[in-house]
Amino acid sequence: MAELAINGGSKARTREFFAWPDYDGRELEYVEEVIKSRVWFAGMRGADPGTKTEEFERKFAQYHDTAYGIACANGTVAIEVALRAAGVGVGDEVIVPALTFIATLSAVLQVNAIPIIVDTIYDTQCIDPDEIEKAVTDKTKAIIPVHYGGFGCDMDTITDIAQRHNLIVIEDAAHAHGAVYKGKKTGSLGDAATFSFQESKTMTAGEGGIVITNNDELAEKCIQYRSCGRHKGESWYVHYVMPVNYRLSEIQSAMLLAQLERLDDQLKTKNENAHYLAGKFKDIDGINPVPGDGNTNVNGLYLYLLQYDKEKFAGVSRDKFVEALNAEGVPSHIGYPWPLSKNPMFQRVKEGAKGCPFTCPYYGKKISIKDQNFPVTEKICSETVVIPHQILLSSRSDMDDIVAAITKIKENAGELL
Ligand SMILES: Cc1ncc(COP(=O)(O)O)c(C=O)c1O
Q: What number does the ligand 1 atom closest to the CA of 76 have?
């Protein structure tokens, strides 16, 4: 008789885990306040004094030990806004990691710059500074490290490279709200940082994003690129730079104010549960939490990352294991399936494709992303099992159910062959 739920056996876990997105009376109260105020729009530059958006920008920036926050419509355009504000444009090279969501790269394409993809480090899943160093050319303008899953990247080495080559560093902190690396908040470690508030993220208003920075000039330029190219003190129809509307609404900002208030508590619970699970996984050969480099004091834990060794599970493939784990009632997924270069948008580029980045007339070099290989990232993508962050907001006995489900699969792995 089958034991595993995937084969018709009973589930290891029948109750739901922590429900996401999370809300309480505060979201309802703050949103009601906005609705009743009839001020739903944050003003012509995107955060007029007295608006919820202005309050949220200030509090979020302060929380991350930075001076300015520039709220945006989502995390992708936040990266684009930061790049434009930093003066990155046509034909400039921007170094990005092979392991990330497409937005880290697509924002570079949006400003007509050239994404230079480099490999990651196995133990942190973050961009490899040695690979950054090798990739720097006289065209390099910026580096976008991604604090992957919530671990901090090696920012000391990255900022050292940036200083030596006069490069801008924009941290993509979409996975790392509130994370602390070497005693400092991620998001405060480069020239600017960007976050996403899309629904799966650890703080959310359904959609949303923000740039944070300590640099006055960069902040002012971000405001202009975020809100129709408008200058301070000028009128509605006067536009100085690329005039796009990337503003956040007051309703979203009201929700984000409430989400920010519970971020610390949630990070604490998640980090404690991650620590507890790591202790339990020591007894399950073949399941190892990604260790990081030991310098992440508070993990942002957007993704709880596990390395799966199929040889210790009777040769059962990672994909089959994830299917079986979901069937047991533990939500999990494989994460990004491949390095960025393997995406169909690059693989399908035909000879003769025109325009940046493939035949950018301002670049003066040819680039073929589809032929690029990133062995460390390939290995990571073939072994990773992701448990979404909200699962770690559940109780301690819920964590035991995760361990029980994985143990059950291991003990009955033969059923999956
Ligand atoms: C690493 C990373 N950067 C940027 C983004 C883009 O954020 P958004 O979906 O808000 O545009 C995401 C979203 O998943 C992400 O994971």
A: 11
Q: Which atom of ligand 1 is nearest to the CA of 200?
A: 14
Count CA atoms closer than 13 A to 193's CA, side-chain side. Answer: 31
Residue nearest to atom 7 of ligand 1 (CA): 75
What stretches of 39-154 show up as alpha helix (H) in DSSP? Answer: 52-63, 75-85, 103-110, 129-135
Query: Which atom in ligand 1 lies closest to the alpha carbon of residue 208?
Result: 10
Structure tokens at 89: 């444009």
Ligand 1 atom with the smallest distance to the CA of 207 is 10
Q: What are the pocket residues of ligand 1 if the criterion is a CB atom closer than 6 Å to any ligand atom?
A: 74-76, 100-101, 103-104, 146, 172, 174-175, 196, 198, 209
For residue 136, tell me if it sits in a domain. Answer: yes
**Residue 319 located in a structural domain:** no
The residue contributing the CA closest to ligand 1 atom 8 is: 75
- Please give the order of strands across the beta sheet that includes 384-388: 287-289, 303-308, 384-388
Q: Is residue 130 a part of any domain in this protein?
A: yes
- pLDDT one digit per residue (tens) for the chain, 417 residues: 789 999 999 999 999 999 999 999 999 999 999 999 999 999 999 999 999 999 999 999 999 999 999 999 999 999 999 999 999 999 999 999 999 999 999 999 999 999 999 999 999 999 999 999 999 999 999 999 999 999 999 999 999 999 999 999 999 999 999 999 999 999 999 999 999 999 999 999 999 999 999 999 999 999 999 999 999 988 999 999 999 999 999 999 999 999 999 999 999 999 999 999 999 999 999 999 999 999 999 999 999 999 999 999 999 999 999 999 999 999 999 999 999 999 988 877 665 666 666 678 888 888 888 889 999 999 999 999 999 999 999 999 999 999 999 999 999 999 999
Whether residue 212 is contained in a domain is answered as: yes
Measured in Å, residue 195 CA sits from the centre of ligand 1 at 7
Question: What's the domain range around 50?
Answer: 25-260
Count of structural domains within the chain:
1
Q: Are 342 and 98 in contact (CB under 8 A)?
A: no
Return the residue whose CA atom lies nearest to atom 16 of ligand 1.
101
Pocket-testing residue among 83, 126, 144, 198, ligand 1, by greatest number of atoms within 8 A of Cβ? 198
Instruction: Give the CA count within 13 Å in the CB-facing half-sphere of 147.
Output: 34
The domain that contains 82 carries what CATH number? 3.40.640.10
